[in-house]
Amino acid sequence: MSVGSILRSFRRAFPAFTALLAANANACLVCGGRCEPRQQGHFGSLCRTCFRGIPWITRVYCLICGRPEHCPDCVRRARAAFVLSRSAVRYDAAIRAWIAQYKYGGNEAFEPLLGELLTMAYRGLCAELRLPPSMPRRFDAVIPVPVSEARLLERGFNQAERLGGRLAESEGIPLVDALRRTRHSVKQSAKTRGARLRDTHNLFRADSAAVAELLHSRSRPDSCRLLLIDDIYTTGSTVNACAEALADALRQAAPTLRFEIYCLTLARS
Amino acid sequence: MKVVVYAVAAGKRSWAGWSLAPEIDTAYWLDPGYRAEAELAFREKGNDAPSRVHDRQPAAGAGEAGEAERLVAWTEPLPLGHALAVAERWPGGRLPGRRLDQTLSRLIADAWAGDARLGLPVPRQPAAHAAHVPRAAEPGAGRADAHALAARACRAAALLQGRALLVSEALALLEAAGAAGPAGAVPATWSAWAPALQLAALLGRLRLGGAVAPQPQPRLLRWRQALGARPRPRLRCQRCGSGTARMRRTPCAACGRACAYCEACLTMGRSRECGLLILGSPGSPDAGGSSPAVSPRSEPIMPAARAMPRQAAAPDLAVWNLSPAQTAAASAALAYINAPGDPRQPRRRFLLWAVTGAGKTEMIFPLIASALARGGRALIATPRRDVVLELDPRIRKAFPGAAVVTLYGGSEQRWEQGEITLATTHQLFRFREGFDLVIVDEIDAFPYHGDPMLHFAAENARTPDGTHVLLSATPPAALRAEARLGRLAHVRVPVRFHRHPLPVPALLSMPPVRKLLRQRGLPRGLTSALGRSIDRGAQLFVFVQQIRDVEPLAAKLRRFFPAIVIAGTSSQDPDRTDKVQQFRARAIRLLVTTTILERGVTVPKSDVFILDADGRLFDEASLIQMAGRAGRSKDDPAGNVYFCAPERTRAQTSAIAQIRSMNRIARRHGYLIENERR
Ligand SMILES: [Zn+2]
Ligand SMILES: [Zn+2]
Ligand SMILES: [Zn+2]
Ligand SMILES: [Zn+2]
């Protein structure tokens, strides 16, 4: 039984899991100040100042990667395996701290809040693509970017899988853990841009059983729309490598299928 | 993490253990030759261990246990949380033949059933069973391995001595110490160290446990459980002592179950139910993983076998150049520290209640020296990082020959071991039974005061027969009551080092600051008192309750006293350090501030004005601390203190009463200079 399937069974049994023993519900998650109870959903765990400080991306400049300013990476990339990518917020100091607390510090109390950010990005993406909420299955699957087994054991969770899982849960989309990381790479942040692009080549592969599951559960016979999830979009090399691996596997398993891969991340650096 | 759970039957006894490296446990229990070799190597090495070590005979437990007759291991690794539960609930006693296997299966099934009862999802289990582990075909074949591994285990145990570390921290320490041997640059990996740590635990030189673990059940409950009562899991963070209320349960990929982690000490790295806490203090040998991580304090570990006998003769205090009051206090503390422990008082705490400006740092020097003379290690902890940084050069100067380690968040010396350790109280989480003398300074200061987690850490940082010395000018009421009732050994230092009485605050009736700021003028009483202080050339501290009042009040005072430089500062002021510096240098004459400067800042020749002294934020301790800023120097020992408020509160009157009472005691003991003149 893989770790992924254990986590899936957890989620099915207990959707609101991490909120289980939440203590001190009235203090701001970030600064400890007083919360803003009128805020929607999990934004209620923030005080007014912290909520107002969220650096939303309201207007994109690069239509491919959703960057709010000029973007050299997308121009340079010959062919992207994904259609486009959108992010909820800019990767500023505050968001960096939130994600670091969650991912490296293991403060899972941040999860509902970060999940909510991702949901906001999802709504924006659907609006942009003109996919109305009334549409039955706007996306056929949510697919998290995987982390290596060693990292998973060390951290205890894959942030993309958790956040994607929350989105999948709230939007009624199947979460399919379709990708595997073939090797343990050095921390992305410690590398130069060139090294990063080189390193991601063949870093991921699709799991054939999971791809079969994905094809089986799709709603339309001749086409499918997939949503790749990650926490941070930096150069796009990670999500692109994931999309490539996924596309290869889909082409092999169902040569006639038309598919589109979109990306959604929490933050755009 | 997941570990291998096993059970052993030996004569009349049986026990369950868990292991990071099951092949080590198997060889240790089933091959007497292997065990003898490991014990021998350990004893050889044990002597040159660099630090204080309880001289124990590891054979004691093994001898009682006798030859292991049967060992069965569960074929699938289990979440550490469940392994701990199985070991904790093991009934003990004689379990012949298949009954050993059955008991193991039953307890493991119970552990998962416990999850289900809590409403936690239980993943489908792969088929697993208790498998009999056969004896090695050639007994004693692993002798060479045993010897080499024991040497590594010994090195690890010595380096981890007195520590309480998570796996990542322990690996960082071993790596920093270059414990891998000559090729020290190799990063320490878990797979390389796990067997050595496991052997050290088997030999009783380290204790391995869950970072969050079930609290040992009282006997009565265990008995009820045996009759079929449901066990109620009570988790406790073994590192910070927090209970279930501070736990969060999340699905965990590392152990494959929904396991709990502690939110209270999260900033110090995540303490988790399936995460290991490595305690570098001797446990009972052969306990394997079955001993709880925290040994009950009521059973000190072999105090008779202590390597360093307590010193009977009173050390010479003259070298420290202390005042009579300081000398008396230091001698009282030393007498307590050096007295044999009272088994009815396992906590061994001593309160040094020294007025502001008494010179407590000098008083602790002889205590540290005495601990070092016995070959022990001393720790000085304080809640505030700036105090640590300020103490550092003074300690190094007083003890030039000693290895001093200074610890705070981000300190370079994080993994070093010294004779004297200086640390913020948060760093104490990383120690367990590591110091013969633990001195906690400013016990009533934030964040130490009112934080049970830091108290837990401080209490556990000392060796079972070590002493915990508490320092404060304003001990919390609970401690004062304990001292009064004779439950807490203590000494009072009622006089400052310069031997002049403490300035007694004068009450000045005036409206609240909010109202003052709305009025055009200022009350005559206040302006004339401020004017007198300015004229006499003093530095003026003006304390207010609210940060928002700091700047408006400073502006207003500037209009009334245009001839001097007036500034305001608070916790939100980025230039605070700079302004305090200028205030010390007399470039700023009057500083409007909040409780942020109530302690620590010493400025010669200063007067203190506390506005809104009846406010909620100024309690008795805070008032005494602020008043303590006045009259600190030998050249201007008197100083003036004013409590300015519309009302006289209990906090004000009791602060004045406490100051007066200290002066009275000082006078009675003949500590004041005025006594000598007469
Ligand atoms: Zn906030
Ligand atoms: Zn772009
Ligand atoms: Zn776990
Ligand atoms: Zn804790």
Q: Give the biggest sheet of chain A.
A: 4 strands, parallel
Q: Indicate the CATH class of the largest domain in chain A.
A: Alpha Beta
Shape of chain A: globular
Amount of beta strand of chain B: 15-25%
Poorly predicted runs of chain A: 14-23
What value does the Rg of chain B take, in angstroms?
A: 30 Å
- In order across it, which strands form the biggest sheet of chain A? 1-6-5-2
Instruction: Quote the average pLDDT of chain A.
Output: 84
Structural class of chain A: alpha/beta
List the helices and strands and how they pair.
The complex is a heterodimer of chains A (269) and B (678).
Chain A: H1 3-13, H2 48-52, H3 72-76, E1 85-90, H4 93-103, H5 111-128, E2 141-144, H6 149-155, H7 159-171, E3 179-181, H8 193-199, E4 204-206, H9 208-217, E5 223-233, H10 237-253, E6 258-268
Parallel strand pairs in A: 1-6, 2-5, 5-6
Antiparallel strand pairs in A: 3-4
Chain B: E1 2-10, E2 13-19, H1 22-30, H2 32-46, H3 59-65, E3 70-74, E4 78-79, H4 80-89, H5 98-117, E5 130-132, H6 143-160, E6 164-166, H7 167-176, H8 190-202, E7 207-210, E8 212-214, H9 219-226, E9 235-237, E10 247-252, E11 257-262, E12 276-279, H10 324-338, E13 349-354, H11 360-373, E14 378-382, H12 385-398, E15 404-407, E16 420-424, E17 435-440, H13 452-461, E18 462-472, H14 477-484, E19 489-493, E20 506-509, H15 513-518, H16 524-535, E21 539-543, H17 547-560, E22 566-568, H18 576-584, E23 590-593, E24 606-611, H19 620-627, E25 641-645, H20 650-668, H21 673-677
Bound molecules: zinc ion (ZN) (4 copies).
